[in-house]
Fold:
Amino acid sequence: MTPELAKDCAILELLYHTTEGPNWQVPLNGTQWLTTEDCCKWDGVGCKTQVGQNRVTSIRMHDTVGLAGTLPPELARLTYLQKLQMRRSDLSGTIPVGLATYLPDMKSLEIGRTRISGTLPADFYAFENLESLYLKRSEVSGTIDAAIGRLEELEFLDISKSKFSGTIPVEFASLTDLETFIIARNYFTGHFPDLLSVSDKMTEKLTECELSEPWDPEEEDDNDFYCPLPNLPPACGKRIYCVPAPSPSPSPPSPPSPPPGTLVPGAQHHSVSPGVIAGSVIGSIVGALLVVACIAGLYTYHQGLTVNKPLVKNMETGSLPDPSAQASTRDTVSINMNKDPKNMEE
Structure:
């Protein structure tokens, strides 16, 4: 046995322990696991000559009673693995990250009818040579990425009765080799893409297609594709149902404006103290008195100008009155100020 095959056998031994190998009950078509050094002789293990040496290329453990536990991430080191078929078992856990990255020759991944859950790994769409994908009746959830269009070699796809959701990407139209397309009993929704408008080659090989199923009281969940449906490949037209597209949610009405003076909850309201009101009144009174005083002052000033007109006239002509005339004028002003205003006007 070559060193490379010995590494493959060590990984299979790890798989045996992580999937509760001692509890397996298998119809032996070969040798029981771990009983011989050469793992190529173990039941369900297939080997082929790769690059001049024997390597593990397939693991087939269908309907194995007692097969449980999880798939170890070390499976990604089986560089030449092409088929991993372990459906109808009690396997759980998630699909290991790295399988698609490090197993470029993988052609068949069949782990349906198990309790495997989680979402498809980020590198899942690197399985560009994958021909068969069977995840039926698993707990796998999440959405199908547009990168599904990279799996152009895919011939068989059955992910029905699982927990996938979201919309169906139009990139499915790139899978022109698809013969079986079964996605019923999931949680897909939205408008089904018009695949035929992208590529009419999907009709050339597609013979089995189930996009939804008739209502079953024991299995109420199914895809809710919106009406109207586009033109579908002939194999799909008989097994799909649609629901009315939801109406857009109306905008909530604006609340009516409160009457003037109404206290609005949450708004800031300010109260005015009696002291502030009194101060405002006093300020108004003082302002009024100042206005009255200004008017009285202007009136007095105007009267003074009227009495002293001769003086102003002399100043305009440039001549100054003599002192005796000023004294006489002052006496006259003094006398006239004590007279009745009517007489002054005369």
About this structure: The two ends are 149 Å apart (CA to CA). Confidence is low (pLDDT under 50) at residues 305-346.
